[in-house]
Write a structure and sequence with these properties.
Largest sheet: 7 strands, antiparallel
Number of domains: 1
Shape: globular
Structural class: alpha+beta
Distance between the termini: 36 Å
CATH architecture: Roll
Radius of gyration: 14 Å
Number of strands: 7
Helix content: 25-40%
Order of helices and strands: HEEEEHEEHHE
């Protein structure tokens, strides 16, 4: 992804996050037709709470999220955070959940990947350009 496209994407998500926060998570439950959730992790170095909004896909035991990092060839910070501490909080469909983040592999990974690509072909484009594996994490309510 070109740097100007990444900057535009960041601006759009920043505006989305502002609307989400001002409405208490009621406005912006979808972006581009794809559902959005709020994930709050604990920083792997700082220990501080970190909030992100991210697309998700329904999966049998909880939503799945894909760590493309907007096409950068490093894992997103939220992936590093949940690897260090898989206990997190997430809000989807207007409700908060305590979750355990599980990194998917094997058949579960493939099923989640296919669901993601079906919702947004952009994921397949990222995969063509990245040299790192793209993590997929399931958020299992506790």
């Amino acid at each position: 992804m070109a740097e100007t496209d990444r900057k535009k994407m960041r601006l759009v998500w920043t505006a989305h996050k502002l609307a989400w926060n001002l409405s208490g998570g009621h406005f912006g439950r979808k972006m581009g037709g794809i559902p959005v959730l709020e994930l709050v992790t604990t920083g792997h170095r700082s220990g501080l709470k970190r909030q992100i909004l991210i697309w998700y896909f329904d999966f049998p035991e909880g939503p799945a999220i894909i760590g493309t990092n907007a096409g950068l060839d490093v894992d997103p910070a939220w992936v590093k955070n949940i690897r260090a501490n898989p206990q997190a909080r997430a809000r989807w469909n207007g409700k908060w959940h305590d979750v355990r983040a599980i990194e998917l592999s094997g058949a579960d990974y493939e099923a989640a990947w296919n669901a993601g690509v079906a919702a947004s072909a952009g994921y397949a484009e990222y995969k063509k350009t990245l040299t790192r594996p793209i993590p997929i994490v399931q958020l299992q309510p506790r």
